């Protein structure tokens, strides 16, 4: 898939809560093809401590308006600068990067996300729906405030939630939700993205029940397009770049 | 018209801008961004005799205007390169160099021999300065006798352009450059990364799996320019300068200090087409300042 | 309450934060900004036996997250210090150290002798690593025999705390640290500036009058942390770490790597009260992470 | 004179032309005493290449409103960032720094400025006027566009101008202006700030005619308050810091 470097224009910055922002970025021309699970590398120039680009998943695509959505969580200087982007600002990106979630063979699909890991699941959900598959989403957070963008997800399928404090949805972690506790789950395929600890228990559950499971890793990256070899994950075939061979891997392929 | 070509001790570069080993893959990763044949040269990834898995993740830390890496020469070995990668890239209309590394002199020699047989590779860059491997690597590049030993041994079997890449982690880089010249190098390139380290104060653990790693990027530029200048005072072979070059002005700074050509490393990660802008920028500078040839910039600093 | 005090081989610092020589004048320049008595220690300007004019202007160049300086130990000589400056500053309620430099061993010894007689100066920092003077300076600090020679000579006449400041422009800093410890140093401080250079591409002239100068600031931090960690593996005397410390997290990084105390240099130029913020930040970190004593941070990195 | 570090608020950014801006900065409380010829060190944080503060002369002071004016010429990244400051932004400064122009013994005063060197002359002119002295100003520039802030100067005294292309005022450099070409000039004291070449000819003229002359240097500085010794000028007494012993020197004291 051909990669580009382009200046996008910020046409909207919607703050969801104290840590999350959704940026709507417009391409100067026609958006090239992109797949769910792919990501972009955002240039954040104006900070003394932000030297490298920042990898961010493609949250959603609006092909008609040539816009891309990014869901950004403020965790350090780079993401803070991104969240401070204003309408009319320019945002330089290398895109689209990485492989993508593979479309499922069978229709019963669960997408499990936590934290900013929910970002690529929206785009994937939209493509699933376009392919006639109505997915279930299982989204976890610490508190009710952490459950974001629910309305967008609800348009694409059933949304289950968990919170650690029980303020909304099932109390506990995603793995405690009933949808993942049945002995004979009605799921053929899981896609998951979020904290590594979460993905590991989800992958284990999938393995125990012979469910296919694709995980999306968020390894630290220097380049994002296979030039530096900094982002490797250990796989059955040795070290593989999460930016080119991933970020999406079959959970059984990873040495977890 | 500005003449951008550079005579690198008999090797004719179309312009002074090369890419640095380990930061440009095999060039293929950049084909979407620009035609890599426009480059003066491409230094392919660090290559060893045998397959190497490299170091465990995490391999990268961001630092003020720089980065640390601890890749550790992950590559599939020189035979895989010759059989599988070389056929794919040999048609590039630019000079391809292989960056050769080893844990022992024998490994360097054997690897160089394999590359010697590849028609479209006019030169190697002998990496005696990698800080990210346990054996060999930097150890060879930090003393004159060991640097001389490996260069002499490789010189015997390697018949084409032999560039030797120097380590900045030394007391006197000029001394080592001179020794390497006397041992038969056709050019020297510098600097490789500076040994550095970063600790995550939240977890109180080193950020890199290997604790220390190699520092690159603009942070090291003043050190690199100084070393190029020091080496230029003592050697007669061409110098290929690098370390923190982000734009044409940086490249010109290295050339003024004495570099005949330059390599761009870390900057490729931030702007994948940066090398093209540097080529164009050097041309524009020459025009503006009345240099008919880019080679006239080499060592043109007025001290 | 967090105990911020540090035992520097018998010298009791009220906290680990000192100022670096050549970046804090005699403390007086900072009195408008905060009470310098709050510091763990003050390292006064580089002092030599005789008056020195220093190097010609320009002495400074800005670099990516760093600066080059070529001050060249401008000072009025140790006798002027003892007679005129010392009486003005000796009442500071903090440890005052004199940074001692020389072109010959005799000069180092004579200067140290003069400082030895000053009651309110509990220690000196022997600067065998200044890259900005033609004779002596860094030359002493880049080989073990010369470093040992000057430390042994000064040790004979200097009876108080003898800190030795190491040069980062060496192949193996740990080796030199060990040699200096064996020669009688009470502590080592590192790093001094890295030799660097910058060229103005518009004029094609070096920016500094001396062509090369000393690099400091955040750019050098990864190198400095690595050196502190390497030295910590081999010496038993305390280490005073510095190089690019801008905030409390940076300071803590050095302590985790093995520094008992730290010095803040270039950051003083950008925020004259930065050292106070660093002291408070270390205290806050200790509270947050459950350290009763700041000294528990020393070498606490989990490798 | 006590020095401070404070956040000022940008209350106005007036662009004079493509290279000059006048910033009006408000102190959070009461402005401390400051003298003409003194300068501030401005922190410019948001650039990867701007590490140190930037020294800028005090252009004017409004004690009533607790505001300070800076006249900034865009020449590099730091001054560009300053000129991009917007109303409401914060600007951190160390101030007031350096010595100052000494008040004259005699009343016939000429202030000679070029480029951004005119900045401190306005403040000096105001203080002269407050002391009952009406100064003459001689301001030089390359073209008419470079002659800025003339109205402000005109309120304080007579303003002479030169331009290199002759588009306004006398054609040539300041030294070519009639006020500096008389054999018996009616001037007791000159104050000058601008390009070094200009100040040198002015100083030479002053020397030739036994006129006292104070020059204000713009040496590169790392700290601005005497801590680094980077900013030295050669004087009869050896190297002196332009940031503490200067920026104002008697021209005869400098080894020019
Ligand atoms: C393929 C991929 C897709 C991603 N998608 C998104 C997304 O859609 N939305 C989003 O908000 N974030 C996403 N991330 C994570 C995002 O890249 C990081 O949060 C960001 O780079 C942090 O930059 P910073 O300057 O804010 O923080 P820094 O100051 O760089 O770091 C702050 C802290 O976070 C840690 N950290 C930094 N980067 C990462 C990382 N990649 N993983 C874990 N910890 C890290 C650092 O070690 C440090 O402790 C993605 C990462 C990858 C690799
Ligand atoms: C005491 C003093 C008062 C000053 N007053 C003013 C003022 O009122 N208004 C104003 O606009 N400027 C003033 N200056 C100059 C101002 O400090 C510089 O223009 C500024 O620091 C440049 O920063 P920069 O990042 O824009 O340029 P940089 O990117 O740092 O430099 C761009 C180019 O300008 C050169 N340069 C940088 N600083 C100086 C300098 N101090 N002198 C000469 N050349 C320099 C550099 O070598 C480089 O070639 C003053 C300087 C001093 C020392
Ligand atoms: C991720 C990474 C990998 C590298 N791998 C190699 C390598 O395999 N062989 C080598 O000689 N140098 C290697 N280097 C060093 C670069 O070639 C170059 O010498 C150094 O990065 C300084 O240049 P820069 O500042 O422009 O990056 C690597 C650098 C980086 C950042
Ligand atoms: C302007 C300047 C002057 C210095 N003068 C001295 C000196 O006289 N003696 C000395 O040992 N170190 C001197 N140094 C080095 C510092 O003390 C310190 O080792 C170095 O700057 C690294 O720390 P930093 O990055 O925090 O500045 C000087 C540094 C600077 C920037
Ligand atoms: S981030 Fe560079 S290879 Fe993956
Ligand atoms: S600028 Fe630091 S002493 Fe003058």
Structural description of this entry:
The complex is a heterotetramer, with two copies of chain A (256 residues) and two copies of chain B (303 residues). By secondary structure, chain A is an alpha/beta fold. Chain A folds into two domains: 4-97, Elongation Factor Tu (Ef-tu), domain 3 (Beta Barrel), CATH 2.40.30; 109-218, 3-Layer(aba) Sandwich (Rossmann fold), CATH 3.40.50. Chain A contains four helices and 16 strands. In chain A, strands 4-3-7-1-2-6-5 form a seven-stranded antiparallel β-sheet. Chain A has a seven-stranded mixed β-sheet with strand order 11-10-9-8-12-13-16, with helices on both faces. A two-stranded antiparallel sheet of chain A has the order 14-15. In chain A, 49% of the residues are buried. The mean pLDDT of chain A is 94. The mean pLDDT of chain B is 96. Chain B has a single domain (6-297), classed as Aldolase class I (TIM Barrel, Alpha-Beta Barrel). With 303 residues, chain B is of the alpha/beta class. The two termini of chain B are 28 Å apart. At the B-C interface, β11, β13, α5 and α6 of B face β11, β13, α5 and α6 of C. The structure holds flavin-adenine dinucleotide (2 copies), flavin mononucleotide (2 copies) and FE2/S2 (inorganic) cluster (FES) (2 copies). The site of one flavin mononucleotide has 26 residues of chain C, from β4.
CATH topology of chain B: TIM Barrel
**Largest interface, and how many residues on either side?**
B-C, 46 and 47 residues
Roughly how many Å is the radius of gyration of chain A?
17 Å
Helix content of chain A: 10-25%
In terms of structural class, how would the helical and strand content of chain A be classed? alpha/beta
SSE pattern of chain B, N- to C-terminal: EEEEEEHEHEHEHEEEEEHEHEHH
Annotation, overall tally of beta strands of chain B: 16
Mean pLDDT level of chain B: 96
Shape of chain A: globular
Biggest β-sheet: strands ordered side by side in the sheet of chain A:
4-3-7-1-2-6-5
Distance between the termini of chain A: 29 Å
The CATH topology of the largest domain in chain A is what?
Answer: Rossmann fold
Give the C-level CATH assignment of the largest domain in chain A: Alpha Beta
Helix content of chain B: 25-40%
Question: Which percent band covers the strand fraction of chain B?
Answer: 15-25%
Indicate how many domains the architecture of chain B comprises: 1
User: Main sheet of chain A?
Assistant: 7 strands, antiparallel
Characterize the largest beta sheet of chain B: strand count, sense, and whether it forms a barrel.
Answer: 8 strands, parallel, barrel
Q: Unreliable stretches of chain A, pLDDT < 50, 5 or more residues?
A: none
How many strand elements of chain A? Answer: 16
């Amino acid at each position: 898939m051909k990669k580009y470097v382009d200046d996008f224009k910020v046409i909207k910055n919607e703050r969801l809560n104290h840590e999350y922002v959704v940026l709507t970025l417009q391409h100067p021309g026609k958006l090239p093809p992109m797949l769910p699970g792919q990501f972009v590398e955002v240039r954040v120039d104006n900070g003394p401590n932000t030297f490298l680009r920042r990898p961010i998943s493609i949250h959603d695509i609006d092909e008609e308006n040539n816009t891309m959505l990014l869901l950004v969580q403020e965790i350090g200087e780079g993401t803070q600068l991104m969240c401070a982007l204003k309408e009319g600002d320019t945002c330089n990106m290398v895109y689209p990067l990485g492989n993508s979630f593979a479309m499922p063979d069978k229709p019963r699909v669960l997408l499990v996300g936590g934290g900013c890991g929910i970002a690529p699941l929206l785009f994937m959900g939209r493509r699933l729906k376009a392919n006639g598959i109505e997915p279930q989403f299982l989204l976890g957070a610490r508190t009710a405030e952490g459950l974001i963008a629910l309305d967008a997800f609800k348009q694409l399928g059933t949304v289950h939630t968990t919170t650690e404090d029980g303020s909304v949805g099932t109390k506990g972690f995603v793995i405690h939700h009933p949808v993942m506790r049945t002995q004979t789950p009605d799921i053929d395929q899981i896609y998951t993205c979020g904290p590594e600890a979460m993905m590991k228990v989800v992958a284990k559950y999938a393995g125990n029940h012979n469910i296919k499971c694709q995980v999306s890793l968020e390894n630290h990256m220097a380049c994002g397009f296979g030039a530096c070899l900094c982002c490797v994950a250990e796989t059955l075939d040795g070290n593989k770049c999460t930016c080119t061979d991933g970020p999406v891997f079959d959970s059984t392929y990873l040495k977890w | 018209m500005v003449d951008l070509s550079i005579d690198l001790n008999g090797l004719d570069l179309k312009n002074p801008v090369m890419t640095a080993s380990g930061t440009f893959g095999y060039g293929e990763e950049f084909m979407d961004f620009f035609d890599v044949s426009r480059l003066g040269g491409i230094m392919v990834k660090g290559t060893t005799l045998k397959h190497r898995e490299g170091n465990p993740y995490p391999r990268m830390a961001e630092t003020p205007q720089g980065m640390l890496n601890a890749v550790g020469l992950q590559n599939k070995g020189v035979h895989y390169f010759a059989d599988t990668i070389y056929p794919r890239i040999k048609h590039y209309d630019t000079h391809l160099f292989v960056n050769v590394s080893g844990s022992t002199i024998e490994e360097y020699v054997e690897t160089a021999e394999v590359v010697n047989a590849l028609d479209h590779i006019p030169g190697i860059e002998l990496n005696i300065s990698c800080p990210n491997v346990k054996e060999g690597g930097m150890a060879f590049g930090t003393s004159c006798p060991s640097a001389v030993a490996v260069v002499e041994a490789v010189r015997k079997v390697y018949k084409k352009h032999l560039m030797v890449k120097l380590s900045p982690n030394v007391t006197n880089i000029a001394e080592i450059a001179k020794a390497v010249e006397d041992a038969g190098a056709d050019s020297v390139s510098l600097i490789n990364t500076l040994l550095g380290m970063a600790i995550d104060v939240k977890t109180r653990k080193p950020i890199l799996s290997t604790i220390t790693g190699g520092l690159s990027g603009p942070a090291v530029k003043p050190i690199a320019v100084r070393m190029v200048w020091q080496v230029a005072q003592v050697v007669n072979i061409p110098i290929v300068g690098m370390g923190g070059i982000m734009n044409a002005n940086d490249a010109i700074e290295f050339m003024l200090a004495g570099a005949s050509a330059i390599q761009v490393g870390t900057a490729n990660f931030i702007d994948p087409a940066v090398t093209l802008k540097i080529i164009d920028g050097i041309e524009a500078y020459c025009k503006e300042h009345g240099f008919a040839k880019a080679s006239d910039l080499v060592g043109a600093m007025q001290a």
